[in-house]
Structure formats: structure tokens, C-alpha cells
């Protein structure tokens, strides 16, 4: 299963090369944009997938604006782990509301926008417990029932991208391959999704500067490299970072067994 109709940035993380040889397992960890636009065929595809656990990183406001659609054919466990950093639609709305129609205030609001790398560092500083819980859910999944984990936010590039990079890196995935997976989101989102998001921001009065366009639609390799570099410097790597969020050594071993064996 490589696509689900109605999703722009969906993929299985299986097949990511490991530094010791081999690749991560398929059917264990998936990533996606929000599930609010699944078509009838997409819902059927989703129901037939190994996915049983859905981790939603969006804030309550984001969920209310675009509730996930899920199949009725079978139950799913939905785990809400709200992470504020990366809630771009909410952030942009708040900034533009603060700026109002005054161009100088809009310019001040735009100047306050972080780079993606800065955004990710803030996310990492506050989100260790949430990211460790994702690792715990993946570690607890099995092949006996549809318990594969899907992580998503709104675009599936920032909160989802950081979470996926951490888990893949922690189980020994090749760093260049981890970065490449992150970077591929921009191409997946280009077109309908990106154009729609930018048009919405433009209607709100936000000038579409290169910095804002990258923040909302981009996934430059340097951004996730910056984040992983911070993890290396502060925690000795992604495994150490997840431990700082409460992941035990036994859970880390189970994570590696599920994803990397």
C-alpha cells in the first residue's frame, strides 16, 4: 500500500536503509497529512491497511477545523498528542489577527516567524514525552492484528517529520536516508495542498515571502539536519532523546525489534 486516496503526504516508512545493513520493516510505522479529506475509496483502503493506531499531533483547534475521517468497518485507537510548534494554520491566523490591517504590524508579525530549524528545536525542547509515547506505541504493535502506527499532523511534514526522523534514527536508520524521507514531503505537498494553504494565507493578508512559503510548505534537508544535530549534541542521539522523554531501555529494544529486525 503506497497511496490512500485523499491523502497527499502518506507513506510507509518501511524500506529505509539501516546503517548495519538491511532496511526498516514495512507495515509498522506510517506517516501522513491530516485524514480529513479521505474519499470513499480512501476510507476503504485505510480499513484494509495494517494501521490500527493513529497518533494525531494537531492541537484541539486544528482538529475542530478539520476532523479526521475514519472507516466504520473496524475500530481504531486514536491517540491525541498535541504539539503546538508546527501548528502553522493556527500560528498564521494568530499572527495575522494580531497584525490586522496595519502593514507595519503585519511586518512585525512576519519578522517573528521562526525558521523551520528553530521551530524544530522548540518542538524537541517541549515534546520529548510525546515523541517517547509514539515510540512506545510502535514498540507495542504486533503482526497479529492491525496495530501498525500512523502518525500525522496537518501537513505531515513538521511534527510528523520530526517524530518519524527520531524513531528511524533511534533504530539505526542511515542518517542520509532519514533526511531524504523528511525532504520528500515538500514534493508530495506541492500542487493542490500547498497552493490551497498559501492562498488561504494570502486571503488573510499574509505576504507570501520566501521565508513564509518555506515555513508552510517546505522541507529543506538543512532543517531536519539542524534538529538531529541538536539531538546529538544535547542527548547523544535520538535514542538518548527518547529516553529523556521516559522511554525505557526495554521499550527501546522493542522499538528496534519492531522497526529494524
UniProtKB/TrEMBL annotation:
Domain Tyrosine specific protein phosphatases: 129-168
Protein name: Tyrosine-protein phosphatase
Organism, as annotated: Microbacterium fluvii
Taxonomic path: Bacteria, Bacillati, Actinomycetota, Actinomycetes, Micrococcales
Amino acid at each position: 500500500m503506497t497511496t490512500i486516496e485523499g491523502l497527499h503526504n502518506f507513506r510507509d516508512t518501511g524500506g529505509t536503509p539501516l546503517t548495519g545493513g538491511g532496511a526498516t520493516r514495512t507495515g509498522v510505522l506510517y506517516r501522513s497529512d491530516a485524514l480529513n479529506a479521505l474519499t470513499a475509496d480512501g476510507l476503504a483502503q485505510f480499513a484494509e491497511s495494517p494501521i490500527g493506531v493513529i497518533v494525531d499531533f494537531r492541537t484541539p483547534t486544528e482538529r475542530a477545523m478539520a476532523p479526521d475521517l475514519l472507516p466504520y468497518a473496524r475500530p481504531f485507537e486514536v491517540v491525541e498528542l498535541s504539539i503546538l510548534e508546527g501548528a502553522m494554520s493556527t500560528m498564521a491566523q494568530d499572527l495575522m489577527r494580531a497584525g490586522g490591517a496595519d502593514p507595519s504590524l503585519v511586518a512585525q508579525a512576519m519578522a517573528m516567524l521562526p525558521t523551520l530549524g528553530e521551530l524544530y528545536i522548540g518542538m524537541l525542547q517541549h515534546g520529548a514525552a510525546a515523541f517517547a509515547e509514539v515510540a512506545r506505541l510502535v514498540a507495542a504493535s504486533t503482526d497479529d492484528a492491525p496495530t501498525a502506527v500512523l502518525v500525522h499532523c496537518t501537513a505531515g511534514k513538521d511534527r510528523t517529520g520530526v517524530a518519524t526522523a527520531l524513531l528511524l534514527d533511534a533504530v539505526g536508520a542511515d542518517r542520509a536516508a532519514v533526511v531524504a524521507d523528511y525532504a520528500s514531503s515538500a514534493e508530495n505537498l506541492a500542487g493542490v495542498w500547498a497552493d490551497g494553504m498559501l492562498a488561504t494565507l494570502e486571503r488573510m493578508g499574509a505576504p507570501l515571502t520566501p521565508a513564509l512559503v518555506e515555513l508552510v510548505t517546505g522541507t529543506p534537508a538543512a532543517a531536519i539536519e539542524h534538529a538531529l544535530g541538536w539531538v546529538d549534541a544535547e542527548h547523544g542521539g535520538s535514542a538518548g532523546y527518547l529516553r529523556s522523554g521516559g522511554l525505557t531501555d526495554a521499550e527501546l529494544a522493542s522499538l528496534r525489534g519492531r522497526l529494524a529486525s
